[in-house]
Amino acid sequence: MLAIIAPGQGSQTPGMLTAWVADPALEKLLAQWSSDIDLDLVRLGTTADADEIKDTANAQPLIVATSLLAAHALGIKNFAVTSGHSVGELA
Q1: What is the pLDDT along the chain (91 residues), one digit of tens a residue?
Q2: Neighbours of 57 (CB within 10 A)
């Protein structure tokens, strides 16, 4: 049985997506999500400073995107249980 647990607000750190966007497929996916929600998740996850990603309007979409990106990168399609803290419940 596979369980997925996603973090909540406060887990974001500057540069948290830098390693992820080194993979062109993951960067493309993140860029598409950015376009879908009109928020530059690539920039927020790579070059934005701590104050900018502390803002709830930026932090929550960034954290959800990071959780979904991790699941996608790991090829997780079927899981039995999900859990999360705060906004992580939505991921």
Answers
A1: 677 777 778 788 899 999 999 999 999 999 999 999 999 999 999 999 999 999 999 999 999 899 888 888 888 777 666 666 565 555 5
A2: 8
Whether the Cβ atoms of residue 57 and residue 31 lie closer than 8 Å to each other:
no
Tokens 């909540």 appear where? 8
Residue among 1, 2, 3 nearest 84 (CA): 3
CA angle 17, 37, 24 (to 5 degrees): 40
Segments of the chain assigned E as strands? 3-6, 81-84
Residue 31: φ, ψ to 5°: -65, -40
